[in-house]
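Sample entry (451 residues):
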Amino acid sequence: MLKLLPGRASIWKVTIQILILSFPLVYLTRMVEATPLQQTVSDLMSWGDNYAGQLGNGSFVEDINPTHTIAMNDLAEIAAGSAHSLALKNDGTVWSWGNDRYGQLGDGLSSNLSTPKNIPFQLPVKEIATGYNHSLAVTTDGSIYTWGCNSVGQLGDGSKSDRNTPYHLQGLINITKVAGGGEHSLALKSDGTVWAWGGNRYGQLGDGTQTDRLYPVKITGLSGIKSITAGYYSSTALKDDGTVWSWGSNEYGQLGNGNRTNSPSPVEVSGLSGITAISCGYNHCLALASTGVIWGWGRNDVGMLGDGGKEANSSLPVQVLTINDAIAIAAGGFFNLALQTDHTAWSWGFNSNGQLGDGTRANRSSPVQVRGINSSITFIAAGGGFSLASSSTRPWDLNGDHMINVLDITSLGAYFGKSGLPGTLIGDINLDGTVNVLDVTILGAHFGETY
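Predicted structure, serialized as tokens:
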């Protein structure tokens, strides 16, 4: 993978096949002087429980209000476990802090950290995820690394021994996404299949059994998947067609299929279509529709379904009140976060540690606005009892998916020949005042691939 280094110009010969929507394919081979990709400015905020330093502010004192506690720039993704945090930078480096009892920080030690520390990898990382007490990462070659608690095989290394440094999981390639549950892990391959390993007491591995697996197994009868998420003892997947499927524990109705019977094989969540994102807490799940509304199902005793105080568990999706323009969702242990198009953050559910960020410790059964979140927030993450939010300005995220990836090359190609994208020059990668084929070439070179 070719990397653009701050303050350096590089010369690459790059052959790129540009897919320009309905336009013909264009083939280029030329020498390009690449101006460095624009640096981003990020500011990570945190609030809620902090007994293990998971807020990353140098202390172990909880905070019921969001504060700009972590000076970390250039963030691409954040993830929150039960009491530990991960951050991925755009340069492919991973940082961790919080609870390290089981080695989930990956620094080779087992001591809690209240400030971020870099985890070394041989290759840049493109995706991160947290389970309850374990962590996962995907490197740019599509390989998986796991570390932390391994009590029932959730690291997939064939053992039940914890690891305090990342382990290269064997046997899986072309991985695009990972997810961690209470005692199990999921991986999504580029072919749309899902693989699982770890604890399987409730059928959360989706292989039709209740047998724990120390190595990855393919989930049967599931294809065309584009996103995955894991609850404590359940799993959920989003298909390309906008439908949602789930399997595992259904004690609180968290499978969303109208009953409370556990299922070791995927079942469709009832009544959902046009879904663009999913996220699960310990015993409840959320789905974001293309219309901007949010649906929730499962446990609801402290208001985590956001239906206005009914506090009854639901085995069918119910609409979260008052939010009609959401662009991102994050389900925590017993609470949730949502981000709207104006980049205001909203929260609801359990609040004993101030994880809702509204300045109180009162539970909320309908969404309340998080205090002090500015209009540049683009990422949110919900942990066991704490929250993270990151602001980030990334002008080359052209398709608006909050990631910098090959899809942006296609998006930029779609605008080729114009002087700029609507209202801005956010595609002007080489800063020459126009959006043109040179920007496509440079963006392609950033990934070290040929298109």
